[in-house]
Amino acid sequence: MMEDMPPLVVACCQTAPSVGAVDDNLVALRAALGEALDAGAGIVVATELAGSGYAFADAEEARAHAEDLAGPTVSAYRDASQRGGGAVVVGGFCERGEDGNTYNSAVAVEAGAVLAVYRKLHLWHDEQSCFTPGAQAPPIVETRHGRIGVAICYDLEFPELTRALALRGADLLALPTNWPRTAIPPGERSMLGTLAMATARLSRTFVAVCDRAGAERGVDYEGASIVAGPDGYPLAESTDPLTPQVLTATVDLAHARDKRTGPRNDVVADRRPEVY
Amino acid sequence: MMEDMPPLVVACCQTAPSVGAVDDNLVALRAALGEALDAGAGIVVATELAGSGYAFADAEEARAHAEDLAGPTVSAYRDASQRGGGAVVVGGFCERGEDGNTYNSAVAVEAGAVLAVYRKLHLWHDEQSCFTPGAQAPPIVETRHGRIGVAICYDLEFPELTRALALRGADLLALPTNWPRTAIPPGERSMLGTLAMATARLSRTFVAVCDRAGAERGVDYEGASIVAGPDGYPLAESTDPLTPQVLTATVDLAHARDKRTGPRNDVVADRRPEVY
């Protein structure tokens, strides 16, 4: 029973991948995954396109970096997930589909086994020139630690998608992310963090966004990884966009099964779908 | 054309109504509406149940405070909306329906005319003992200043409702609110503010939440009124839960008609409703 489980650590491996530096990306990714597991993480989230780098010039360059489930990025996730008693890893990779298309994908693995592959539905900016958009709803994987919904970066801006994952039973939404930096007013956090917090609070789920650090081909990133709890507030949050880092938060995913916001209210049961 | 219009001021009249003090509530409400109009507001939002007070003990007490569209609270809104060239006012009132039921309602008036009445769909806590829930989707009113979607307080927690208002064309969501105070971690804002910001940002609308100040029958309120812009960040925000105040923000509602978040992205057009 989830209620009897020991504290669960969720980690975000905020690395700084770069196109053209695949070997370095993979070394840094494996090191960050190892650091997360050393910290006792049961669920580890990596960034979008963590092995290949993100800022492809065109479809040809993306295709040249695409890999299948035997490729080096997914292998890094699988290897990490076999550590100790077996962990869950959700991370991004540049996927070469059996159909020959290139996808901006995320994989969920547990104890060495691939549970699901998700192909990003909403493509941001020049991703539209590099990738085929996915055609399937995002998956929810049943793991030893709970139910994890998988989405990627810009998907977070579509409440239809995030709400559906929660209604389908996700305890935690895991989002590998590369969020370009935008102007942030003084004293405010990244809008990425605000959206993660609201998404968590609205459906009383956990949300783990693993953003990337640093810059790549002239684009700066937020480096704003965050783990938000069902009350919406951050359990862990990066405030340093420049520095690769491993964030950890201790969570009890059973709390996401309690949708009450008061003695007489429940964010799921109180919906009025017949009226909307 | 909206593009040629002068700057528009949106105001939130954060009063502190109390059951049993209707006369005082109405004096304070009229004074706050007047202050907003003196500040040049074209759109004014008042709190939930601004005339009657909020914390009814039971259905009988709510019924005793219910009014129709000729009642004192709606009259205060209509009178205010006739000031100058005519303003738009959205505010809460305890409604006695023609069906004899009591509703937690909001009215939208412009230049003395009632444009729409909305009956709260999602009832919070003991409102369930006092009110009949609404049965109709929230309205969008066409005004001289733009299209205003009307909802109330706890409705903000239902992304189905807020997203639908935006997709139906609302430039501004106006939410009369009485948000009970919750624990806020140091350095954070009210979750009410975070939800308003995310709601604005996700659909690139303006969101004006008029919360209430003070305490009533042992319940403290957030006093966290906020006007958020399409980028999600606050244009005006109360940080004082105890003090009645009139917040103002200058807005250009035309910005809510531009759903682009980048040169190749649009939060409405990029949706994948066939997949969700």
Question: Largest inter-chain interface?
Answer: A-B, 44 and 44 residues
Question: Radius of gyration of chain A from the CA trace?
Answer: 17 Å
Q: Structural class of chain A, please?
A: alpha/beta
Strand content of chain A: 25-35%
How do the strands of the widest beta sheet of chain A line up side by side? 5-4-3-2-1-14
CATH class membership of chain A = Alpha Beta
Give the number of domains of chain A: 1
The separation of the N and C termini of chain A measures 36 Å
- H-E order of chain A: EHEHHEEEHEEHEHEEEEEEEE
Continuous helix count of chain A: 6
Please tell me the CATH architecture of chain A by its name. Answer: 4-Layer Sandwich
Q: How many strands, which pairing sense, and closed or not: the largest β-sheet of chain A? A: 6 strands, mixed
Q: Which stretches of chain A are poorly predicted, pLDDT < 50 over at least 5 residues? A: none
Oligomer: homodimer
Number of strands of chain A: 16
Which range best describes the helical content of chain A: under 10%, 10-25%, 25-40%, 40-55%, 55-70% or over 70%? Answer: 10-25%
How would you sum up this structure, described in words?
Chain A is an alpha/beta fold and 276 residues long. Chain A has a single domain, classed as Nitrilase/N-carbamoyl-D-aminoacid amidohydrolase. Helix content of chain A is 22%, strand content 29%. In chain A, strands 5-4-3-2-1-14 form a 6-stranded mixed beta sheet. A 6-stranded mixed beta sheet of chain A has the order 6-7-8-9-12-13, with helices on one face. Chain A has a two-stranded antiparallel sheet with strand order 10-11. In chain A, α1 (22-38) runs parallel beside α3 (72-81). The longest helix of chain A has 17 residues, at 22-38. The N and C termini of chain A lie far apart (36 Å). The interface between A and B is large, with 44 and 44 residues.
